Structures are given as C-alpha cells and as structure tokens.
Amino acid sequence: MKAKIEEQIAIDIDYDIFTTEEIVKIFNFYSLISRTKHQKVNKDELIKGYKEYKNIINNISLQKQYERKFEKVTGISIYQLMKSLEN
After folding, report:
1. Which of 29, 31, 40, 59 shows its CA 20 to 30 Å from the CA of 74?
2. Cα angle vertex 31, ends 4, 7, to 5°?
3. SS3 of 62, please?
4. Do the beta carbons of residue 69 and residue 12 sit within 8 Å?
C-alpha cells in the first residue's frame, strides 16, 4: 500500500517545471508528511521541510493543486497538519 501511494505521488509531480533536486525535495517532504499518519515525526523537521517545499512550489495556485492531489491519494491535508503545528 505504501509503495502504491509513493508511486501515485511520484506520478503527480510535474517533471518539466522542476529540477531533479527540487523533485527529490518535494518527494521527501511528501514522504515525511505521509509518515505522520503512522509514526511521530519531529516538528522542526516538518517545518523545515514545509519551508523548502513552499520555496520550490512558490506559486499558491500550483501549491494548492499539488496539496489537493496529495490529500486525495493519502487522506492527509498538508494545510491542516501544518496548521495543527502552530498550537
């Protein structure tokens, strides 16, 4: 199941607009977020990953589009998860 989710996430990344390094960072962030579903993840690591992710996908419309795709595949809302860290 985990491999299928990672496979779907990888397919949904637009390889034409990002560098290989950026794609790796996006995928690593998605993997980090996915791990929160089953295990505790360091808050600072999540925040750092989110900042990198937002710097790479610096277009709000594109970011929302990617986050909707991610939530559809994983059931995890990146927005809600990151908002919950503020508390």
Report:
1. 59
2. 25
3. helix
4. yes
Both tokens of 28, joined, read 């690593």
Q: Among all chains, which residue has been given the structure tokens 């996430």?
A: 9
Packed helices 20-35 and 2-12: angle between N→C axes, nearest 10 degrees: 140
Burial grade of 21 (CB within 10 A; 0-12, 13-18, 19 or more): exposed
**pLDDT recorded at residue 15:** 83
pLDDT in tens, 23-73: 999 989 998 998 888 888 899 999 999 999 999 998 999 999 999 989 988
Phi/psi at 18 (5° precision)? -120, 150
Contacts 24+ apart (CB under 8 A), 15-19: 18/56
